[in-house]
Amino acid sequence: MQKPANYQRLPHAQDCDCSVCWSRREMAKPAPSRSTQCAQCRPAYARPIRTLQMGCVGGTWKPLASEWTVEPAFICEKHTPPARPPKYWSVMLDTGRPTPFVPIHEPFELVG
Question: Where are the domains of the chain?
Answer without folding.
Answer: 39-79
